[in-house]
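Run log, item B.
One chain of 746 residues. Sequence copied directly from the ordering sheet:
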Amino acid sequence: MATLIPRTSGPQVQAELGPQVRNTAQVDLSPLSRTAGAVGQAAVDLFQQQKQRADLTAVMEARRELSDWEGATFNPANADGIAKYQGKNALQAHDALLGDLDRRVSSIRSRLSPEQQQRFDQVSFSFRDSVQGRLNSYADREYSAYEATERKATIDNIGQDAVSAGMSGDFGLADVRLQEAVGIASAAYQTQGMGAEAIKASERGIVSSVRKQTAAAMATRDPFAAEDYYHRYADQMTPEDRAQVERTLYPVVKDRAAYELAQSLADGRGAVEPLPAPKARGVPSASVAKAIDDAAKAEGLDAAGRADLYALAEQESGFRADAVNREVLDDGDQATGLFQYRATSAGGIDRKDAAASARRAAREYKERLAKGGRAFAIAAHFAGEGGADAVVNRGRSAQNPKTALYVRQVMGRSARWASAAGDGSATGAPVATAATAAPSTLADAIAAIPRTMPPDQRAAAEGYLRDIYAQRKDRLEQAKKAAAMSIYDKVAAAGASVPLSQVLAPAELALVGQDSSLAESINRYRKLTAEGAVIQDDPATVDELQRMQALRPTEFAKLPLGQYADKLSGKTLKAFAEDQTKVNDPAKRADYLSDADRVERGFQMLGIGSATDASGTGSEAKNAPRAGLRGEFRIAYQNAQTAFVQSTGKKPTPEQADVLLSATAKQFAQNLQAGRLGAIQEKDGKFKNNPKVKVGLYSSAAQFDLQVSQADRDAVRGAYTDKYGRPPTDAWVTQYLARKSQGAKK
């Protein structure tokens, strides 16, 4: 019998299918082996995953180290990184930093396993490529900036050389330096691949900048030369630079022109200074003289205008109607005729016709005379109205020497013709002499300003004229003061019987004759001296001078003290003279007056000075009210000083102390008149005790101040400071506590 072995998952048993047959049962172990294999494979997979994660982590750590290196290297604050390679050193950054990166990569790689190294190599290669690109970009950018900076510095330096040369007047060297700068810039722009138009625009910018800087620099030294330079090169400048130059240059030119015109007018030279009559150029024939006279009469010109026409004809042609100038003009023409007209300006007349030429000259002269004055009309005949405006109205004589010389020569010739005009000399002579005589008053000088001058420039000229005349007045006052003291010294040293003509110089004697106060004082002084009298101080005069010294120090400094020779002793007069020098010298004003002297001056201002106290028997009782008032005033002035120091944080200057004294004295006088002090002043000027007041206002306040505790004072001061942010003065604290005390009593 056959034995069957079923393929089941359960235990196998032997089945006996028949007799005499033996079968042995077997166990199938394949499921267990498969299970064990599966478990082993899972363990292998897990190990492999863990290894891969560990490798990835190691590579990521290595990559982070590279990132840290990159952050530190490209950190501008790191002096050992990219910041070390700036400017021209930027090209060294590539080799130096990539070498450092390679060393860092090698160091990191040595710590990794072969599998990790393989993965890290991929990362490091990619990282190195990115760093290399970044370094190349940095080096290109930084070195390009360095080159641009160096190029700009070179161009600027050469441009400044051009500006310096232009300032010194060497315009040839300035142009050479400018061309060097333009050449350097052009070569650099071409290497950068810029187009022709871009290069041209850049070159114009450089030229414009140099021209602008040169004009601005020249304006500080010679505004008129700067204006000429600007007009010569304005077409080489950009609109922006032209606008900037005009904004800064023209005001300076106008101001300088106004200043020079004011100086000229104040000195009597007028807008253009005339020359003495030049040597005559020919003699007018009868026909030429008739043509000029008829033209002047037809246009209604006075004798001065007629003289100017004669002077113009003499200057231009020497009175020759057929004269032709040898100079060939730019259009090929030559000036022709009695008044030397060009064909373009003759208005179609026959230039060799004396009558026609004279009529046109007279008509133009009249129009220009009404427009700008005599000098303007003369200058316009030679240089046109533009040239006349430059010389006459803008003070540009130095820049237009031919026009200025022409005007001066014509005015000199006109003066000769005016004086030789017979009946017209009385009218014409003042015209010629007015330009050489200095205006006697400021109003005359202002009236001489050309009418065609722009309003702003005219205002500037008026301002300068006022300054000039104020300075002259001050110099005259100082000279008069010094002369008065010199006269006093000489008169005091000489005997009273010696004639003044033997004592004083002619100029000093003339000053005595012109100044009635000085003459009266000197005569009275000599009379008193001759009588044997001793000159004593007049209290009213001393008080007047002391008040002036305290309240009007500038006026006091200019006062001629010699006129008080009969009212002040020699000692007092010398003391006041010394005080005048202290007023003018700020260094001496520091010791101008001591506090005691200033308080004494306050006594004198109030009429309670000790010098005017009564003397003799019973004088102490008579002077008691005055002494009490002096004590009150000392307290008042001390309080005012303390309040000033506490308010401003510093002591008053001498000027401020004078004002403080005056204000305190004024307030004290008001309280005296109101009867608030311990004394009152009677109608005869004497002082007596005030029966209604036992303690004076200021003394009462001082006594109350002593009664206030320091704690109360500190409390009030603290509350005031908290509210207003600054501490109060002691006077305010006392007044506050006094009002509070009076309110409590009520």
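Observations after the first pass:
- DSSP finds 27 helices and two strands in the chain.
- The chain has five domains: 51-193, 286-452, 454-591, 593-707, 708-745.
Flagged for discussion on Thursday.
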